[in-house]
From TrEMBL:
TM helices/strands, residue ranges: 46-66, 81-98, 119-141, 161-189
Function noted in UniProt: Part of the tripartite ATP-independent periplasmic (TRAP) transport system.
Keywords, in A-Z order: Cell inner membrane, Cell membrane, Membrane, Transmembrane, Transmembrane helix, Transport
Source organism: Halomonas cupida
Predominant cellular place of this UniProt entry's protein: membrane
Protein name: TRAP transporter small permease protein
A GO molecular-function annotation: transmembrane transporter activity
Amino acid sequence: MTEPVMTRPDMTEPVQDIQESLEVLTSVPRLKGPLGRLADVLDRTLLALAVIALIGLSLTVLLQVTSRLLLPFTVAWTEELTRYLFIYMVSLGAGVVLHRHRNVNVELFHGLLGFRGRAAYLALISLLTGGFSLIVLPEAWKFAQIGAFQTSPSLRVPMIYIFLSSVVLFASLLFYSVICTLEGIIALVRGEQPASEVH
């Protein structure tokens, strides 16, 4: 007599339902056409650069710890490079996070909104983000230009390259806020699409 084989219940659907309930804005369809394709290419490019910055940051921290534990001297520039890589990782990834609706937020009422409500909410939040980025971007450029006359203490890198991270941050936020605003407005006008068309 053989014992019945215990099978693990399929958890894919409940997990997917929970994820969709927590990320209600993902139900708003992505922008299509040339602008949508440009956003997708920029997504992949910025994400790849952010991952490279993260890997560089990890290796630099590893070198810093190793030098303190195993070498008779410490490598002075590792702390500075770690800071710069972290700044660029955040700057490069912020726009992609906005576009993919992965920002940390408190969802008090999102689940109560219908499809059009979510689309209107996305358009409003994206419009506010874009407006803020548009105001700050010129000041970020002025700030970056100050770095043309300075160099970093250890690496002796012109600080304009470090300060340009703020320009990258707000330029990408501005671009993606325009994309997300268009996605929200288009979804608001067209109404809910069949599940097969939403990607």
